[in-house]
Amino acid sequence: MKILKGITVLIFMATCSLSSAQDIANHALGLRLGDSDGFGAEISYQKSLGLNNRLEVDLGWRDSRNFNAFKLAGLYQWVRTIEGDFNWYYGVGGGLGSVDFPGLPNDDYGGLFVFAAGDIGIEYNFDIPLILSLDFRPELGVSGYNGFSDNFDFDIGLGIRYQF
Q1: How many CA atoms lie within 13 A of 54 on its CB side?
Q2: CATH 2.40.160.20 fits 26-163, yes or no
Q3: Cα gap 162→59, rounded to integer Å
Q4: Which three-class secondary structure state does DSSP give residue 164?
């Protein structure tokens, strides 16, 4: 009888520890500060879709001496554990935006654009509900203003997000 009670207690403790280990944040909201030929910031939202995948949506702006741009990006990501609270992730997606070149005399060079994107990065989940990440997002212009549809852009970003 004592052995049966002991096994029951061990199974209960193991179940509780496994369920808490798999308990991940459903949402994360924060900023992604990046460089895409100029300083830019994005309001970033992540929604968990399962244990190892999530959706990320970023709304941001880019600013440099040559252009001003707004863009909306959506990415589907797969998350893998490195060790402990370190993860790496990769994903695919795309987005759309608008760009303006204030120094150019006519408006034919700016306008709406559509892009495809990939994503790869690392992140650290703190004991408090905070995530820090560093990612690389290559973007390929699909259609849009003159010159962008043939453009390939490298976007590197540092993210800080609050998990809830």
Answers
A1: 21
A2: yes
A3: 16
A4: coil
Per-residue pLDDT tens digits of the chain, which is 164 residues long? 555 555 554 454 444 433 333 345 799 999 999 876 556 899 999 999 998 999 999 999 877 777 788 899 999 999 999 999 999 999 999 999 988 877 766 656 678 889 999 999 999 999 999 999 999 999 888 887 665 555 777 888 999 999 99
Quote the CA–CA distance of 36 and 39 in Å, as a whole number.
7
For residue 117, the one-letter residue type is: A
Instruction: Report helix, strand or coil for 18.
Output: helix
Residue recorded with tokens 């892009």: 115
Which amino acid, residue 130? L
**One-letter amino acid for residue 28 of the chain:** A
Residue ranges per structural domain of the chain: 26-163
Handedness of CA 152, 154, 159, 164 (dihedral sign): positive
Helix (H, G, I), strand (E, B) or coil at 16: helix
